[in-house]
Amino acid sequence: MAALEPTAPTLIQSISLGLGGYNKAFQLVGGYLLASPEAFIREPLQEIARAAGVSEPTVLRFCRQFGFKGLPDFRIALAMSLAREAQGAFIDPGVSDKAVVNLAAKRAIARFALSLVGDDRSIIIDSGSTTQLFAENLRAANPLVIMTTGLNIAEAFRGASQHTVMLPGGTVRFESNSLSGRMVESTVGGMRFDTIYLGADAIDPVLGLSTFNEAEAHQNAAMVAVSQRVIVLADSTKFRAPALHRICEPDRIHAVITDTGLADDTAALLEQHGVAVHRVEPEGST
Question: What region holds the HTH rpiR-type domain (predicted)?
Answer without folding.
Answer: 9-85
